[in-house]
């Protein structure tokens, strides 16, 4: 496990992404009333246990009531700590390799209430929060030790899609070029069960294009069928059409001996590109619950040589034990398409 990251209370609050919908009515967990203190507690750190099966919230004294409940989105959990404030610098764990936790956000919601929001993969459940002693709360994460992800049901996928609102951009009419990676004689990466990258990205690209057009965008695909296409013509399509945005879609891969490597990552080249990459990455994580590998800078040809904001999306690993079954599932690919479309549209609205 990597060293924890250091975040200030102001940084955490500024970067908080409020979960969609209102939280269900939080229910208080059973906390020993004998440890209650009338003084304001300070949340100093959140740590992961060695086996990753629970979070440990460290405070300088006992907190007030602890309320814990799921948001409308089934992978988002909210924990409220009353009679509590954030320390000026709060230590948070590195979640990069955690099998169940996608992200964590902490904020001071009012002068005496701290809120911790957890985004989790679909199989993980948050157990009853326990007070270990006057300075430690334990948050059990059930299902994190499972080696392979439990298959997500059609009903759960449909529910997640229903939670996604796609904004209308007809008043802006942005020109967006969607680039399905590889194709034709180039299958791209080949993963578990012979899953080919080109067979994943092309149907998703088509669906993203349709969803964007339905919301008022002008969309061009760099290829309309399963054909071989070099990198230069992809860039030329964007330049020739005067695109406002260029989005290249891919599926990731690593050695077949590393099925433990899973997750979504989105690449940008310059500071001009970073906001669109971050918008797509954020939307993908919120919708799918897949692991977060971050928005990163890279010198991919299609990013370096385009003159408009551009991003390259790696939608998961065809070699990943968790990701490959999802990428092979047409229903889950529909969810991915909705997530990518929402990220693109959110960026378009914020950057008219």
Write up this protein.
The chain has 352 residues and is of the alpha/beta class. It has two domains: 5-142, Sandwich (Immunoglobulin-like), CATH 2.60.40; 154-350, Aminopeptidase (3-Layer(aba) Sandwich), CATH 3.40.630.40. The chain is built from eight helices and 18 strands. The chain has helices at residues 9-14, 154-162, 197-214, 231-240, 274-288, 301-304, 323-327, 330-350, and strands spanning 5-8, 27-28, 41-48, 54-59, 66-70, 76-82, 84-92, 101-110, 113-120, 125-126, 130-133, 136-142, 175-180, 218-221, 245-252, 264-268, 292-297, 310-317. The strands form three sheets. Strands 1, 3, 4, 7, 10, 11 and 12 form a seven-stranded mixed beta sheet that branches. The chain has a six-stranded mixed beta sheet with strand order 14-13-15-18-16-17, with helices on both faces. Strands 2-5-6-9-8 form a five-stranded antiparallel beta sheet. Strand 5 (66-70) and strand 6 (76-82) form a beta hairpin. The longest helix is centred in the last third of the chain and has 21 residues, at 330-350.
């Amino acid at each position: 496990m990597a060293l924890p990251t250091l975040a200030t209370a102001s940084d955490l609050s500024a970067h908080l992404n409020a979960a969609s919908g209102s939280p269900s009515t939080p229910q208080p967990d059973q906390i020993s009333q004998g440890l209650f203190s009338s003084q304001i507690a300070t949340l100093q750190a959140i740590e992961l246990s060695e086996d990753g099966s629970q979070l440990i919230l460290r405070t300088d004294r006992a907190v007030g009531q602890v309320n814990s409940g799921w948001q409308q989105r089934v992978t988002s959990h909210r924990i409220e700590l009353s009679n509590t404030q954030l320390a000026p610098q709060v230590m948070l764990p590195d979640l990069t390799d955690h099998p169940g936790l996608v992200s964590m956000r902490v904020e001071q919601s009012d002068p005496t209430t701290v809120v911790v929001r957890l985004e989790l993969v679909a199989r993980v459940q948050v157990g009853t929060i326990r007070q270990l002693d006057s300075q430690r709360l334990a948050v059990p994460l059930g299902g994190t030790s499972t080696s392979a992800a439990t298959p997500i049901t059609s009903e759960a996928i449909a529910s997640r899609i229903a939670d996604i609102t796609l904004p209308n951009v007809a008043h802006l009419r942005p020109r967006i070029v969607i680039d399905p990676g590889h194709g034709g004689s180039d299958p791209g990466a080949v993963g578990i069960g012979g899953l080919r990258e080109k067979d994943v990205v092309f149907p998703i690209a088509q669906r993203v294009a349709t969803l964007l057009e339905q919301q008022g965008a002008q969309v061009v695909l760099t290829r309309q069928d399963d054909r071989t296409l070099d990198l230069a013509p992809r860039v030329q399509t964007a330049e020739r059409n005067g695109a406002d945005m260029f989005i290249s879609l891919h599926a990731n891969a690593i050695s077949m001996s590393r099925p433990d490597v899973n997750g979504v990552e989105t690449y940008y080249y310059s500071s001009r590109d970073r906001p669109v990459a971050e918008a797509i990455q954020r939307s993908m994580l919120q919708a799918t619950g897949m692991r977060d590998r971050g928005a990163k800078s890279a010198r991919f040809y299609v990013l370096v040589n385009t003159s408009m904001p551009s991003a390259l999306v790696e939608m998961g690993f065809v070699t990943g034990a968790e990701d490959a079954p999802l990428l092979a599932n047409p229903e889950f690919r529909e969810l991915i398409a909705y997530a990518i479309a929402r990220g693109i549209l959110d960026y378009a609205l914020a950057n008219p």
